[in-house]
Each structure stands twice: as C-alpha cells, then as structure tokens.
Amino acid sequence: MSGIPVYKELTKEVAAKMRGLRQSQPDLMAAFSQLAAAGTQEGALSKKTRELVALGIAVACRCDDCIGFHMQTLVKLGATRAEIEEVLGTAVYMGGGPSMMYATHALKAFEEFSE
C-alpha cells in the first residue's frame, strides 16, 4: 500500500517533534497532556472504549498521526481485530468514502503494532 505511512516510524517521529514542543511550549503541551488524560480516563466508559472512539474520530477526520497513536494504545490495551473493524465500520458510516480509505490505514497500523 504505497502512500500509507509506516506507523511505528510515524509515531516515533511525531513523538520526537512533540518533545521539542514541550521545551518551547511547556504550558501548551502540559495543557494538551491534561486534556488527553482527562479524555481517556476510566469512567462510565473504559479506557479501551474511549480509545476506540478516538480511533473512529481519527479515521473520520483523516488524521494518520492520530490513527498511529490511538492504535498503538489500543494494541497495548488488548483490542482485538474484530473490535477495531467494528469501530472502523462506524467511522466509514459517519465519514463515507474518504473514511473507508483511512480505515485501511488503520488496519495497517493495527497489523504493525500487533507484530
């Protein structure tokens, strides 16, 4: 699949750039970290469920970087391919053809992080 990022490399590159922003923009990055922690904490929904929602939004919004980070977390949380595929189906329902194309990106990310 040409043109689709290599997700392990992509997430490493983006994480490195974000570390640089932590130095130059510490208040912004601290606020973003707090937002991420609040948006994924256990509550009525499990952390895994919240990450599945985030993945669906990442696909519908066509954000490869977001797909990479959320998929990496989902694999660590034990998400199954069936769970991922159901979320991708919902993302395609909400986002149409472009989301279908990014759903294939998400499957590639799942395969990479599952190795």
UniProtKB/TrEMBL annotation:
Positions of the Carboxymuconolactone decarboxylase-like domain: 26-108
Sample GO molecular function, one term: peroxiredoxin activity
InterPro entries reported for this sequence: AhpD-like (IPR029032), AhpD_core (IPR004675), CMD-like (IPR003779)
Keywords, sorted A to Z: Oxidoreductase, Peroxidase
Protein name: Alkylhydroperoxidase AhpD family core domain protein
Organism: Collimonas arenae
